[in-house]
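TL;DR need structure tokens for one chain.
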Amino acid sequence: QVQLVESGGGLVQPGESLRLSCAASGSIFRVFSMAWYRQAPGKQRELVAVVSSGGSGSSTYADSAKGRFTISRDNAKNTVNLQMNSLKPEDTAVYYCNAVISSTTSALLRNYWGQGTQVTVSS
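>> reply
TL;DR here they are.
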């Protein structure tokens, strides 16, 4: 069984920073892409940033995150982080970690999700 566990959410004021972390554990054979999504009340879940599994770890960001957020991963630890700077009230949402993983019990790739962590940006 594979689990994703997030940490680092909280309440901050506009302009402040937060760092989200996510660790994948369990019967992992290989972790492919890792990503962060978010879902605000009344809205659909949206991609924030994704990082590939390649050596260069290329990343892609939503327009709303470009220049303010940075995604990074540690392949040795199966972790992914999201550094969020210059936070705005519109960044308020539940943030979900996502990873595409093949387990030791199945060669099939599966999409795994964390439980979500609340980020609230308010003065």
